[in-house]
Specification:
about 35% helix; alpha+beta; five-stranded mixed β-sheet; four-stranded antiparallel β-sheet
């Protein structure tokens, strides 16, 4: 997928490989819509890789397993001597591929294949614990946590009845333990030619590295008793509150964005110099707002009493409550910045080696007040990130220190303490605008964002596409490598396909169907002129040369094959237009229901009959098993005031007669059977 990522695949059965956290996280969000059986496994993987400081390791490695069962079952598959050898191997962590290769190579000495490998592996894994494996890689990107909510939303989209369970009851969530830590402010601010910069923000803590190294199993799972006790296990809401607290405490000196405090930027990592300029990102502030809104809405939906409580680590409780006290105390922006960062630095110091193990109950009533006050603070900051002339949000800021003092500490040198900042916005980026659509409060507000984006310098009027950023000519070279590229090329003012697809997906989610399908044919690669695009229109590119590039002959040309990001967004688009926003839901009685609400223009329905499909139909596979066929004899759009509506539904099963429903929704127990992929075909008549 990317040659520079050095991906390695295990040369064996059930092969696994490494991957980068962000890439794998965003690409897994639709897994559950193709195999509901994965259930919460993706949630556990990516939430469990989040650390107590809100960050995560970069490189995800193959899963290891630790056998915990009775070895007696080996006699069903092996002779006594063979069983002894396999038992010895099972006493150590293994991957499925390693184990099977060991059996064929060492136990059977390559003479015969292991015919019963799948039955054997089924029993082994059923008695084994999964151990996540990852390594730090380099730095900490500030956006990686945000993709976890998309995984959670997808899970609840298929299993809406599990909200309480996944948020409050499942205690399988842990924290990843990493010896790479973020240094406090006084250790990462430096003077260069009279200006304050932020360098070398992440360092390997040797005491923590030694503690992790001496653990025999699950070395990277955070423990209690300051790292010497048992693995700390908790609920998803605690993990989410941990992230919220850490990111809220990282708001910049103006409250407008989340700071790039840990050597790396966010998704747009071509701004690799911005962390050194004490840069901050509005995109993550908007995502923080989205997480808080999700939690508030979820708690209300579950219907907890104010006196109910969430149990969380005492250290996290102190951080959450301390930040709430600051946010409601009327402090000016600088004072809030200074005190909130000090609170977090105290928290990071206390939890460096692990949690103490002491827990504190946070009442739901108090939690709701806390989250509401966080939101108010975030909203005040976001107003400063809004450009009233453009009617759009900025994405990034440089936070320049214009006043500071030098603090002397005996034996530790001189440290810089900023006293006053000046904030400078970078030109518009499509990224922040996309994130603002995610928290749009109404369809009309989203429509306003769309219209403003069309009028901005982000819209390429020649190509009718969206550029990743507005011109950067007035920006210093220090912001990052994007500045060195010719405008319209690579990461500077080109059409960056992944972000463009993200943007139009948000139009779709906000119900801007007319606007979406206007852009649909202009921006999606399958509708491009192959001669101009310069490669197969069945293949996405990293970027498309915009009309900002000096050589007009290259305008609209695609460069650098890329298979993940834009494809992940397209899969989400495909899912939404085929089945609607939330097909599974709970009725007033709390029973599972299913209702298809496709978002399809009339021109996407077939003009001719083909095979089992008459003309005026559109078909897709739901949950990768059930064939769903829409019949639209009038070829009407399925959205808008005059859109076609569901008139009749026919369900086919392998083991019983067809069932015909004269209603738009599929109620229980049929909805559950469809989710279990027992229905072979569903025909839906539109009128």
């Amino acid at each position: 997928e990317r040659d520079y990522n050095r991906f390695l695949l295990e040369p064996g059965y059930f092969s696994q490989g490494n991957g980068n956290y962000r890439d794998a996280n965003q690409n897994r969000r639709s897994d559950i819509w193709f195999n509901p059986g994965v259930k919460d496994s993706g949630l556990l993987t990516f939430f469990n890789l989040l650390q107590a400081d809100g960050y995560n390791p970069l490189v995800i490695k193959p899963d290891n397993f630790i056998f915990q069962g009775d070895f007696g079952f080996l006699n069903k598959f092996f002779s006594p001597e063979e069983a002894r050898q396999v038992k010895k191997r099972l006493e150590k962590p293994f991957t499925p591929g390693e184990l099977l290769s060991f059996i064929e190579r060492v136990v059977f000495k390559g003479v015969q294949p292991f015919e019963a490998r799948e039955r054997f592996l089924f029993q082994v894994l059923g008695s084994s614990l999964r151990a996540l494996s990852a390594e730090h890689g380099e730095g900490f990107w500030i956006d990686h946590w945000s993709y976890c909510l998309e995984l959670l939303e997808a899970y609840l989209g298929v299993y809406p009845e599990n909200l309480r369970y996944i948020l409050l009851e499942n205690k399988e969530f842990i924290f990843f333990d990493n010896s790479e830590v973020v240094r406090p402010r006084k250790e990462r601010y430096v003077l260069r030619n009279g200006a304050v910069f932020q360098y070398h923000s992440v360092v390997n803590n040797h005491a923590k590295a030694a503690l992790i190294k001496k653990r025999e199993i699950f070395p990277h799972s955070l423990r209690i008793r300051n790292g010497e006790g048992e693995i700390y296990r908790t609920t998803l809401i605690v993990k989410m509150l941990s992230v919220i607290a850490n990111k809220f405490a990282c708001l910049d000196p103006f409250g407008a964005g989340v700071e790039m405090e840990a050597n790396k930027p966010n998704w747009y990592d071509a701004l690799n110099g911005l962390p050194g300029l004490l840069g901050s990102s509005v995109s993550e502030a908007l995502e923080l707002k989205r997480w808080i809104i999700f939690l508030k809405d979820s708690l209300e939906s579950i219907g907890l009493n104010d006196e109910d409580a969430v149990s969380l680590p005492g250290e996290l409780y102190e951080l959450l409550v301390g930040l709430e006290r600051l946010s409601s105390s009327g402090l000016n922006d600088y004072a809030f910045w200074d005190k909130s960062h000090s609170l977090r630095e105290e928290y990071l110091g206390k939890t460096l080696l692990g949690f103490s193990g002491q827990e504190q109950g946070l009442r739901i009533g108090k939690l709701n007040v806390l989250l509401a006050n966080y939101l108010k603070k975030i909203e005040r900051g976001l107003k400063k990130a809004y450009n009233p002339k453009e009617k759009l949000y900025y994405s990034y800021f440089i936070n320049e220190v214009v006043e500071y003092k030098t603090i002397e500490e005996n034996g530790r040198g001189n440290f810089i303490k900023p006293l006053k900042f000046k904030q400078m916005p970078l030109p518009l980026f499509l990224e922040g605008i996309m994130h603002s659509l995610r928290v749009a409060e109404s369809r009309s507000q989203a429509q306003g964002i769309f219209k403003a984006a069309r009028k901005s310098q982000l819209y390429d009027r020649k190509l009718k596409m969206y550029k990743v950023n507005a011109p950067l000519a007035d920006m210093p070279q220090e912001i990052g490598r994007c500045r060195v590229f010719t405008p319209g090329w690579l990461e500077n003012e080109s059409v960056w396909l992944h972000m463009e697809y993200k943007y139009i997906l948000e139009l779709l989610k906000n119900g801007l169907y007319k606007e979406f399908f206007t852009d649909f044919k202009n921006v999606l690669v399958p509708f491009q002129d192959p001669g101009r695009y310069g490669r197969s229109i069945l293949e996405n590119s990293s970027f498309i040369v915009s009309s900002a590039f000096p050589d007009q002959r290259l305008h609209g040309g695609g460069f650098v094959a890329r298979l993940s990001g834009s494809t992940a967004e397209f899969v989400s688009i495909w899912l939404l237009i085929c089945r609607g926003q939330r097909p599974f839901y709970l009725d007033k009685g709390g029973r599972l229901s299913l209702e298809f609400k496709p978002v399809l223009p009339g021109w996407l329905f077939s003009e001719k009959a083909r095979g089992d499909f008459p003309k005026n139909t559109f078909a897709f596979r739901f949950l990768n098993k059930t064939l769903v066929v829409y019949h639209n004899p009038k070829r009407k759009d399925t959205f808008g005031p005059q859109g076609a509506n569901v008139k009749q539904i026919t369900l086919e099963f392998q083991d019983r007669p067809k069932q015909i429903l004269k209603q738009p929704c599929i109620s229980s127990p049929l909805a559950g059977e469809v989710r279990e992929r027992k229905a072979s075909r569903i025909d839906i008549i539109l009128d």
